[in-house]
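Quick one:
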Amino acid sequence: MYMFRRMFTIVILSTFLCTAKPLPKYIYYVASPLVERSEWYCQREMGKYELGKNTGFCRTYQDAVGIPAGASYCYAGQYWCYEQASRELGIQNPLPRTGIANVIFDLAKLRGEKGKKIQRHDFVIWRVPKGWEGHIERVKKVLGGGWVETYAFNVSVGNREGSAIKKRNIFYPLGRKAFRGLVGVQYEK
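Output:
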């Protein structure tokens, strides 16, 4: 299984790199202190476990974006971290208040400014092909070759669900979800 996965990765990466298409990345501007402070909240939230079926500690995130208990909270967790930093710093939260992971990508794409490479604080977005469902994680560290360390909410942590720092290759599918693109969080001009 390990060799199959490794070969699959090599084929996918070489296919992606040989197509010479630019990485789908769009820029989303955020105030500098907000980006840094929201990361502090992300760090603090890592390592928590659900009670099961998207309930427990994650209810705070779901409430922050107005989604019901039991709903997926991968984006809601990211939003909550920015919201806490916004309140603390007295800066308006620029992220859209929604429970849908792909909305921030759609908004950044509408603004039309493209980025070029994976950077710390970027959001990585995956989506079910031809669907609206997706997943989002925030880049903690870029490792190279498509590999990143992320702050992730609503993910498997051993045999449980919760929040954790994950190592991902952005080109690997997450279950049924395929890599859609990046939202580059840049400091406001």
